[in-house]
UniProtKB/TrEMBL annotation:
Family matches, as Pfam families: TetR_N
Origin species: Frankia alni (strain DSM 45986 / CECT 9034 / ACN14a)
Annotated TM spans: none
SUPFAM superfamilies: Homeodomain-like
Region of interest: Disordered: 1-67, 273-302, 315-350
DNA-binding region per UniProt: 105-124, 374-393
Name of the protein this chain belongs to: TetR-family transcriptional regulator
Keywords, ordered alphabetically: DNA-binding
GO molecular function: DNA-binding transcription factor activity; transcription cis-regulatory region binding
Length: 557
């Protein structure tokens, strides 16, 4: 396992030096195979002992103990077999980082070690079984890091220690980023991909992390959000914020961007746990009004359809298409601008066919991503003929352009409405509607996060949406700092660009990954958590107490 950064050692000292109590150590899930358990925490200690042994990457604790049939001579794995396993694991780790899970085949892993597929299958049922080793390592590292979190408080030391801990959590997740982002969707899909049924190991670790938080949040007001939900949210949001930032950084990486993101995340989460007290209104002070659009007027809306058409996939008007006019079209339809991505107008008779193909494309993109999906995959899922697909779209990127334009319209419309939210009830309704958008367009948002930079024709649309969201974020009310958080520790460099990355992650990647892609949380749990984070941490709404997704208070101050 990679060595922990030196920052972890200073963080272990920090709580004691600051006089902050540290709860008892967490129980650590051990390896699931026949290896002996890792060292246990010592009772009465603030943290795990420094000499604690955890399974190293590719170490013996995670290795298979027996060959799989048919094996050449002996089922027992000796020194040579152990070395072969280590080399297979090392090659798989490198290829998963370079190509991703779906882009890596068993054949590629075997060839990277100079072995055959048959040699690989002597030790592992498929690539998912190797990938799971890395997931186990991630779980052990997360448990180890959560153990270092002291009891949080609203004072200066509480914020400073939480900010430092969150930064180190980012370092842990960066080491495991491909594992976190690439874990397959479900056991059912794993069987299709690998012919191997390997259960998702995340739940055991999530239960341990959830059990750790009540004592660490004893002084916090979490609005009734379950600790398991909070642990998932913190991990997911920190990791996907890095992924969103890294994708954007391939175009324009700014110095200190990680620090700015960690400042923004720590400020949002800390405000959510420790909201400022209600201010005592002055007798002559007018009643605060709900936030609304800036005095400069409504947020300008980019021409999303024109930008999508500029991808060079469809002509500027209906007369520029390559397919001939349908017998059901009228001249006005033929001369009207084409919907983005489409090569011809859609008549009433063809609308259901277009929607069937579009839904099949979303399902295919969800399983394999944009790069891993072919037109044939979409056609097979939709059940239409090849000619029917090509009647409306020229290729895979064209149909994604159609889907991206639809999603862009929804996200811009809904973010515009966020400016009029002034109470927690209104926010809960806004978030409830937003989750319906994520349920329908979350796959497109996710591809936007991970793959948009590999598709230059879509850049103008993506850039316009990003700038529009930054404009909306710049007009949101600034939350008041908590009375117990000193100004010298409150983040001062949170720009609209930084906060847009945070909001994109909180509102798209967190619900998509934790609720839809990897369903470890329910819709109600996600709604409950989002209401807490958005109400207190982003908009500064007071007393954001929520029960089962229903808000019970309004904004003040």
């Amino acid at each position: 396992m990679p060595e922990s950064p030196s920052g972890n050692r200073s963080l272990r000292r920090g709580p004691r030096e600051a006089g902050l109590p540290t709860p008892d150590p967490l129980p650590t899930p051990g390896p699931r195979q026949d290896a002996t358990d890792a060292g246990s925490p010592i009772p009465g200690r603030d943290t795990l002992p420094a000499e604690r042994v955890t399974p190293a990457p590719g170490g013996d604790a995670w290795l298979p103990q027996r060959r799989r049939a048919p094996y050449p001579a002996s089922q027992a794995i000796g020194a040579e077999g152990a070395r072969a396993c280590q080399e297979i694991i090392a090659a798989a780790r490198r290829l998963f980082v370079e190509r991703g899970y779906h882009g890596t085949s068993v054949q590629a892993v075997a060839e990277a070690t100079g072995r055959s597929d048959a040699a690989f299958y002597q030790y592992f049922r498929g690539k998912l079984e190797v990938f799971r080793i890395f997931f186990e390592e991630l779980g052990v590292d997360l448990v180890d890091h959560f153990q270092r979190l002291p009891v949080l408080s609203a004072g200066p030391a509480g914020f400073a220690v939480f900010r430092a801990w969150l930064g180190e959590l980012g370092a842990v997740l960066r080491r495991h980023s491909p594992v976190f982002a690439e874990w397959p969707l479900s056991t059912a899909e794993a069987a299709l991909v690998d012919n191997a049924s390997v259960d998702n190991p995340s739940e055991e670790y999530l239960q341990v992390l959830a059990a750790s938080l009540p004592s660490r949040l004893a002084r916090a007001d979490t609005g009734g959000v379950d600790t398991r939900v909070l642990s998932v949210a913190v991990i997911c949001i920190v990791e996907w914020t890095h992924i969103v930032s890294d994708a954007r950084g391939r175009v324009a990486r700014h110095p200190g961007e990680d620090e700015a993101l960690h400042d923004a995340l720590a400020g949002m989460i800390h405000r959510s746990f420790f909201p400022p007290p209600e201010p005592a209104p002055r007798s002559c002070e007018p009643t605060p009004h709900s936030p609304g659009p800036s005095p400069t007027g409504p947020v300008p809306r980019p021409d999303l359809a024109a930008l999508a058409r500029a991808a060079g996939i469809a002509g500027p008007t209906g007369t520029a298409r390559t397919a001939g006019p349908s017998s059901g079209e009228v001249p006005a339809q033929r001369d009207a601008p084409l919907p983005p991505g489409l090569r011809r107008s859609v008549t009433g008779r063809g609308r259901s066919t277009v929607e069937t193909i579009a839904e099949a494309a979303v399902a295919a993109f969800e399983q394999r991503g944009l790069a891993g999906t072919s037109v044939n995959d979409i056609i097979a899922r939709s059940g239409v003929a090849h000619g029917t697909f090509y009647r409306y779209w020229t290729d895979r990127t064209a149909i994604f352009t159609t889907l991206a334009h639809r999603a862009a319209v929804h996200i811009c419309d809904h973010f515009d409405a966020l400016l009029a939210v002034g109470t927690v009830d209104e926010l809960t309704c806004w978030l409830d509607d937003w989750l319906r958008i994520v349920e329908r367009h979350g796959t497109v948002f996710h591809i936007w996060t991970c793959e948009i930079l590999d598709n230059p024709p879509l850049w103008p649309l993506a850039r316009a949406v990003r700038l529009h969201l930054e404009d909306v974020v710049a007009r949101l009310p600034t939350p008041r700092p908590t009375a117990t958080t000193p100004t010298n520790t409150e983040p001062t460099n949170t720009t609209p660009t930084t906060m847009t990355i945070v909001l994109w992650t909180v509102l798209t990647e967190f619900p998509y990954n934790a609720w839809l892609r990897h369903p470890v949380l329910t819709r109600e749990q996600v709604l409950h958590c989002l209401t807490l984070l958005m109400a207190r941490g982003v908009l500064g709404l007071q007393d954001a107490t929520v029960t089962n997704g229903r808000a019970e208070s309004t904004r003040s101050g």
